[in-house]
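Chapter summary example.
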Amino acid sequence: MLELTKIISAFIVFPGFFVTFFAILAFYFFLKKKKPLKPLRGAWLPILFLSLSVFFYMASSTWFVNLFSKVLYIPDTKDKGDYIVVLGGGIDEYSGSVEVGKHTLRRLYKGYLLYKSKPRKIVVTGGVVSKGIPEAFVMKDVLISFGVPEEDVIVEDKARNTFQNAQYTHSIIGDRPITLVTSVTHMKRSLLSFRKFFKEVYHIQSDVPLDFRNAFLDYIPTYRAFYTFCNIVYELVGILQYAIFKS
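The structure predicted for these 247 residues follows.
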């Protein structure tokens, strides 16, 4: 009964609502096609709405997004960097309070585990995109709360994008071997930038894109899968942008 309830609700709330809505429209115009209609409406509207229904289903289903995410996956290397470099993934500001974002927290935890295994300096990099405080300061506080000594944390607080993360980190530590830590979906784009400034870039991924267990929940629409789909598209656009503008 619980499974049935989840399946039904998944097609009523966002984004599953659009799967249902466009499927109903496709069925409606398919039935109307038998009546005298303009050729365009009769032939193309059912196909258009059915395509939109299929698109929203695929883009919000964990099984498909899991497959889609593989285009960005890169196997980890060994951790041989003289420095650990953790890229910021956002902080959350709400009603005057500031918290580390979930993507940033996962990256920091992975950096902390690498530090525990082999202590060395950790560079946290991330500035202010629009307004507020630089995320690097929040990241530093989190690492200190984990137990990393303050003197082992280097703050880079000016970068506003991935290219600047690499550029400004290089201006602080020079061309030294680094172990780069960022999200699975963000790593490919990050390496394009960091390899422009650093000769030796090792990389360890964190913050997996989604939870896929091949259960029934992975085959119904969820907002988490749709969110991840949007992130993947964003990263692909970023890679295309780098290929064109080299920054």
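To summarize the output: Residues 1-59 form one domain.
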